[in-house]
Design goal:
By secondary structure, the protein is an all-alpha fold. Helices cover 72% and strands 1% of the residues. Strands 1-2 form a two-stranded antiparallel sheet. α3 runs antiparallel to α6. It starts with 8 loop residues before the first helix and ends with a helix.
Length: 339
Amino acid sequence: MVRVPKLTPADAVAALRNPLAFIADRWTPQPRTVRRAALAALVMSVVIVVTGGAVRLTGSGLGCPTWPECTAGSLTPTNALSYHSAIEFTNRMLTYVLCAAVGWAIIAARSEKPYRRGLTRLGWAQFWLVMSNAVLGGIVVLVGLNPYTVAAHFLLATALITVAAVMWQRTGEGDGEPRPLVGKAVQQLVWALVVVSLLLIAVGTVVTGAGPHPGDSGDVERIDVSWSGVAELHAVLAWIVVSLTFALWFFLKGVGAPQGPRDRVRDLFLILLGQGVIGYVQYFTHLPTVLVGLHMFGSCLVWIGVLRVLLSLRERADVRAELPAQSYDAVSASIAGTK
């Protein structure tokens, strides 16, 4: 049985002053633990987008008509409210699960030895994005699901997914200077893919804001544009993304690029095919809610796939492996002993 060290009054004071440093001084997680914590944060950032879509698609956006309370004088739904209230309230509660996942990622990153400041900062960036989007979500409710605030809410969630995906990638890398694995032409092609993918997501929010799913059964403002026209623009951008991905795969194969980038491009291409099928089926079947929800999930996977392609173009050496054994031990001891 492992003996639990006795806490002194000084330890209690230190824990209150800086709980993260207190935990880091007494716990060193395995690299796989840090990676799993980062993955949990990424998974929850996708889950919160999908459940937010479920709120919209079921017309439950104003199931809790105020914020931060669900109704005036009550933090939880009352018996007088409908099932829409339960759906909206459940989505709000999942924000706490997301916060727990992000908090776990921050603690794991902060406790890793040697201390990786960049990794910890990525965890804190996620925390502030979650807090910002929670406030923006409240504003969305208070302004009656204004479509522009709803679009901003989704784009901020996409920013959260971006940071979470980068952190997950960084947990599997070292902290050395990035070394490119491909030439300048390939990098420029991938950046073009990133830009067009961002445009695709942004136009997708306009399609949603002008489409037939306002998020509530009441009179909700819509974006005053031609829905079919914006949907066609969205489809054109999707085909550009597919074409760039297809060309990139052949280009990487032709220049003899490493297997890692080619695998990431292949994965993205398969995701795009599935997303395209769902997109066209939902368009011609008049947007059934199940398919729209799957399309939102697919948009998250597409963006993660694009980021993985971008991040696969370089490698980072583990600087710890390059240090002499005595130097590494000295660095670890110095960090572990810092209060």
